[in-house]
Amino acid sequence: MFAVIAGTLIGNSLTVAHADEAALRRLLHGPDRCDHVIPMLLRHGVNNDSSPATAMHTFHPYGPIAIPATELGDLELISITRHADTAAGCGPSFDLVIKNCSTRDVCGAHVTLVGLLGRIRPTSPNVTTKLESIPAGQAIQVTATLPIQSLAMGNLNGQAIAMNQVLVVLDSFDQFMESNEANNLRLYDATTIPAASTAVAETAVTAAPAAAEATPQDQASSVNPPAAEPSSPSDSGMGLSSPDLRSAIDQFTDGNTAG
């Protein structure tokens, strides 16, 4: 009986510790540190891909088991764009499109952005965002804003130097087993990240000529030709010529006189 109770308590404590691992790390080290991504950098590097294995072997109290790669799934960064405007008191904002390449919903994953000027440090400006849920096979867009320190990471003759690189790390606390762990770390030059407003402007410019071409056609089809107006007062006499009209007036006058 004691063994059952002890096992239950230990099992519950381990479950809670695993569930709160990310929150506990941020509580102990603070939200402004990014040292949790450095071990992943050492293990996988950046801008790499690993060939998905057919199966992953792991250990279990009842013996080793093999997990098919189709059951593991993968998180993939589809695109990154930068906001043209920066809010007061904040650093640059980025829109990330992340796809869940698996057959199951992914809940509670984290994505971390780190602003870099040279080597990464545990105190490099960063932001971590929690992804509440990504449906299976779907992609979502999230917005992450770096702190204002990313705009003043260096000094050159009294002039502040902003970051020149952005590191994006998916599943930054390494909570999920994936078929391709290496593609979770992507490094970009800050100047090569497209602005989010560029895509909107291109769409507007492309749509404008189409609307301009459609307008004359619509007007031409809706405008009716104007009715012909009489060129002279005599043309408005319902087809009667001037002598006929004069004769009718004389007859009407003579009839009134005779009466």
Walk me through what this model shows.
With 259 residues, this protein is an alpha+beta fold. The chain is 32% helix and 24% strand. A four-stranded antiparallel β-sheet has the order 6-5-10-11, covered by helices on one side.
> What is the overall silhouette?
globular
Low-confidence stretches: 1-19, 199-204, 218-223, 230-241
Q: Looking at CATH, which topology of the largest domain would you report?
A: Immunoglobulin-like
Rg over alpha carbons: 38 Å
Largest sheet: 4 strands, antiparallel
Would you list the SSEs in sequence order as H and E?
HHHEEHEEEEEEEEEHH
In helices, the fraction of residues equals 25-40%
Number of domains: 2
- What fraction strand? 15-25%
Could you give the count of β-strands? 11
Q: Which structural class do you get from the secondary structure elements? A: alpha+beta
Distance between the termini: 137 Å
Proper CATH architecture of the largest domain: Sandwich
**For the residues shown, what is the average pLDDT?**
77
Number of helices: 6
Determine and state the CATH class of the largest domain. Answer: Mainly Beta
Annotation keywords:
about 260 residues; 2 domains; three-stranded antiparallel sheet; 6 helices; about 25% strand; globular
Annotate the secondary structure layout:
Layout: H1 2-19, H2 21-29, H3 38-44, E1 55-58, E2 65-68, H4 69-72, E3 75-82, E4 93-100, E5 109-116, E6 126-131, E7 139-145, E8 154-156, E9 159-161, E10 165-170, E11 185-189, H5 196-222, H6 242-258
Antiparallel strand pairs: 1-2, 3-4, 4-7, 5-6, 5-10, 8-9, 10-11
